Amino acid sequence: MMKKLILIIVLLLSWESTLTAEWKMIDSLNYPTENSKLSTWFKAIDCYDNQNCIAFLWVGDQSIRTRSTSDGGETWHSFLRDTIIKKYHEEDDDYDIIYRPARPFNIHYQSKNLCIALCDSGYYWRSTDSCHTWKKHKIDTEKSLINIDFYDDNIGIMSTYYKMYKTLDGGLTWDSVDVNCETPPTGYHEVKIPDENSIIILGYHIDIGDYIIRSDDNCESWKNYDAITPRVRDIHFFNDVEGFAIGKEQIKPKSSSYRDIIQETSDGGKTWEVRLDTFSSPQKGLMTVEFADRQHGIAMGTFWRLWKTNDGGKTWENDSTNNYPNTNDDFWDISYPSPDTVYGVTSNSGKIYMKTDYTVGVEPEPERTYTSVSLYPNPARPGEAITIAIDSEKPESCSASVYSVDGRQISDSFNFDLRPGQNGIQYKADRDLNPGAYFVLIEKDCGVISVRFVVVE
Questions:
Q1: In Å, how far are 5, 95, 182, 401, 452 from 205, measured between CA atoms?
Q2: In CATH, which of 3.40.605.10, 3.30.1360.70, 2.60.40.1930, 1.20.1050.10 is domain 372-455?
Q3: Has residue 430 got a pLDDT over 50?
Q4: CATH architecture for residues 22-363
């Protein structure tokens, strides 16, 4: 009887440890006011190793803060503080705001010699002493600085949504970059600098969608590739040819439900191969991807969703250990400085979490509903035959139809049968189809697939 009781206690303690010992809250901020507490919004976190990390936060509408650690999360300090300044009236209790801090957006911790925090209206903060002292700078723009990446302590790039800038002196000065390619982007989702000569942009064009633009000669010349489908939110490149893209895809037009998509390229962004395509709940798609090294990576979505890889992105597993109540809010950003350590910051609750054994609580990837679907040529011309290439695991009857990006069906549905293996289905673009973006909606027994394509003049 005693042995059975001891066994039950051991099992209960092991079960509790598995549930609660995954994520540890290591910092929490709430700033009191006279009547309530200010909302604390962590906007970004970055680490250059698993001991040295910095988080960037917005305290209500009052101030910005950094929270940095140099001992692996044991202690945190606020060395950068920028606070609203008010001038009170002598005759009443009212006041005028004479200075308001620039709103924070992103942060990049390159090394102990360089950290840059991005804000709105062209402002950024720069530190060269492990985030202890900071100096405020401004470039010639009123737009928000959103994206940033560095190759080393000197060579780096950053961008607003509409413009890109390059530095050769560690962010002291920035030169505007003219991205002169065949189809210049109307927006910048992300910018990366994998080596000293190459710059890779995840761009957006209203008629194309998301696509890669790159320079391999220090911004002297640029080239752009075909659209990446489905939609892409973030990219990561290990070098000038190997990289990943993460994003989302609606399960059908005008739906608020999305599939999580992870794709890999081995030719610098020309072509992409799907590594994860799954329908999970809630369905808001993926937001960011981080790699600790060439083998270990994390893709993060909203509502507590994390996907983890230990084999260089060939397969991805669902990590549910950060689900409520293990963390009381979903993550706004993550940093993955080493294979066994990951940091996450929350938005609404102002907390920093850390997990130091990133091997526990991982579930196998759900069965994929299909292997791959692609269209070519893409872009196409009105009246041109388009091949829908589908790899199928079993015989299946399907139907397809074409929709505009605003959800209008613009072609009659047509039926076709799939055989196991590779299939090629012909669709002829209507000669009256106006140049622009469209997508083919394919309905199968296991679900709905949508693939974007572009028609050009």
A1: 65, 45, 12, 24, 13
A2: 2.60.40.1930
A3: yes
A4: 7 Propeller (2.130)
